[in-house]
Amino acid sequence: xxxxxxxxxxxxxxxxxxxxxxxxxxxxxxxxxxxxxxxxxxxxxxxxxxxxxxxxxxxxxxxxxxxxxxxxxxxxxxxxxxxxxxxxxxxxxxxxxxxxxxxxxxxxxxxxxxxxxxxxxxxxxxxxxxxxxxxxxxxxxxxxxxxxxxxxxxxxxxxxxxxxxxxxxxxxxxxxxxxxxxxxxxxxxxxxxxxxxxxxxxxxxxxxxxxxxxxxxxxxxxxxxxxxxxxxxxxxxxxxxxxxxxxxxxxxxxxxxxxxxxxxxxxxxxxxxxxxxxxxxxxxxxxxxxxxxxxxxxxxxxxxxxxxxxxxxxxxxxxxxxxxxxxxxxxxxxxxxxxxxxxxxxxxxxxxxxxxxxxxxxxxxxxxxxxxxxxxxxxxxxxxxxxxxxxxxxxxxxxxxxxxxxxxxxxxxxxxxxxxxxxxxxxxxxxxxxxxxxxxxxxxxxxxxxxxxxxxxxxxxxxxxxxxxxxxxxxxxxxxxxxxxxxxxxxxxxxxxxxxxxxxxxxxxxxxxxxxxxxxxxxxxxxxxxxxxxxxxxxxxxxxxxxxxxxxxxxxxxxxxxxxxxxxxxxxxxxxxxxxxxxxxxxxxxxxxxxxxxxxxxxxxxxxxxxxxxxxxxxxxxxxxxxxxxxxxxxxxxxxxxxxxxxxxxxxxxxxxxxxxxxxxxxxxxxxxxxxxxxxxxxxxxxxxxxxxxxxxxx
Length: 699
What we know:
By secondary structure, the chain is mostly helical. It is 69% helix and 0% strand. It has a domain at 208-339: Alpha Horseshoe (Leucine-rich Repeat Variant). Helix 19 (297-310) runs parallel beside helix 21 (326-339) and helix 29 packs parallel to helix 31. The longest helix has 17 residues, at 249-265.
C-alpha cells in the first residue's frame, strides 16, 4: 500500500514514528486527505516536530488549501500557536505559515492584534509588516495593515510599539507620517529613534523642526542625519556639517553619507556651501578621513565627497591613500582632479612612496589637472619633471599614463620624450604614446610630422605601424602617398594600419587601393579591407566583395556580409539568400541585418526579402528567430503582426517577450486583441505582467 493511499489512522502512526523521513513523507501525504479537524491536529503535531524538515513540510501543506473554511481553521490554529512560548520551533512554524498565507491571514491577525499576550501582539505586528511586502496584496488589504500598525504604535507595551513603528517604515505608507512626526515630539528616546528610521524608510517630505531638534540629542542624531539626507533641504546643511565633527564614528558616518545624498538630491551648488567651508579645520579633515575604515561603501564614497568639498590641502593625502583600494580608487581620483592645483604639491612630495598602481593613477591625475597650472609655477615644472622621470619607470601603466599626462601639460616638451616610447616593450605603452602624439598634434599635424615621417622607414614594423596610425588620426591627408605605399608593406600590421588610415579619412577616391587589399594573404588585412569598403560607401566595392562570401574564414565572410549591407543593392540579395540557407547562425543573422539595410535604401526589395524572413521565423536557432522578428518589424510594420502572432506560443521565453514588445507598440485593435487572447494561456508571470501593462496603457 502506497503512503498516499493510507488511512488517517495509519498516517497518524507514521507522523509519530521515530524515523524523521517517515514522519516527513506522512505529512506530505496529508495533502491528499480531505480537510477535517483531525487533519488539523496532525498538522499541528507536525508543526511542533523536532525536525525542521518535517515542520517545513507541514507549513507547505497549509498553504495548499483553497477552501475558505479550511483556511479559516488553519489561520486560527496558527494564531493560537503564537502563544507557544515553550516551543520555539512550533511558534516559528506558525509565523512562517501565516506569512505564507498572506492576505488570507490578515483579517484574523488584525482581529487578534489586541491579544492579552504582548509577545503575541508583537509577532502579529511583525507578520503584518512582512505580508505587506508581498506584491500580490491588494490595496484594501494594504490599507487595513497600515491602519492596524498605526493603532499598534500606541500599544501599552514598548516592544510592540517599536515593532509597529518599524513596520510602518518598512511598508512606506504616507498615512503614517503625521503620527510618526508626533512621536518625535512626545515619544521616549527609543520610540523617537525608531520613528526617525521609519520616516527615512517612507522618504516623504515632512516638517523638519523636530528632526533638527533630534540632532541635539546624542542618542538620536545618527538617525536624524540619515533622515535629513533623504528628505532634507539646503537649510539642513549646517546640521550635517556639524555632524562631520562628531566624535562618535557611527554618528559621523551617518552625517557623511547624508551630506553626499542631500547634495545629490537638491543639486547642491558650491556657493551654497561657502558659509560652511571655513569650518573644515585640519582636525575635522582628520576625523572625516577616519571613516575610510568603514566597511560600508556608501560611507567611503561620502568621505571622498566631503574631503573634496573641503577644498583643503589636508584632504589630499587621505584621498591619495584611497587610491590603493578598488572600491574607492575611481572616486578618489576624480576628487583629486576636482581639487585641482591644491592636490599637486602633495602628489609630488608623496609620489615616490606610493605603490606602482597608485603611481600610475597619480600620473593620470597630474595630466588631468596639470595643464590648468600657471606655466611659470614651480609646481608645474615639478610635475613635468616627475612625469618625464615616470616615462622611464619599470611599471608599464605608469609609463602609459605619464606619456598622456605630459602631452597634456607641456606638448612641446613632451614630443621628443614620448617618441621614444614607440619602442616600448608593451603594446599598451606604445598605444599610449600614439594617443599622446595625437594630443600634441591636436592644433596642427605639422607639429608632429617631422618626428613621425622618419619612422615610416624604420626597420621595426611596429614603429612603421604606429607612424601610419598617427598619420591617419591627425588627418595628415597630404601624406596620402606614403599611406598608399604602406598598403604594400611586407608587414601585415602595417598594411592593416594603412587601410584604417584611409578609412578614417573617408577618402572614397582611394577605395581601389583597398579593393586590391581584399586579395591579401593575411586574413586580418582582408577583414580590415572589407570593413573599410563598407564604411567608405563605395559602389565600386560591391562586385570585388562578392568572392569573399565564399572565403573559408568565417570572420572574413561575416565582415563582408556587413559591408554589403552598408553598400549593396537589390542585386546582391540572391547571394545573401544563399547564406541564409547555410548552417552558420552568425552568418544568417548578419545576412538578415544586411537585407534590412538594403531594404531601407531600396524599399522595392522588401517583397523579395519578406519570404526569407518568414522562413527564418521557424528556424531552430532562437537568435535567428529574434533577428528575423526584429528585421520584419522594421521593414513591414503592418504585416509583421500576422507573421509573428504564432510565435506567442514559441518555446523560447526571449522570443515570446520580443513578440509581446512589438505587439505592445502597435496601436491597432488587432494587436490588442491578440495580446488579450494570449494573456489567457501564457504561463510566465513576467510576460503576463508585460501584456497586462500594455493593455492598461491603451485603456
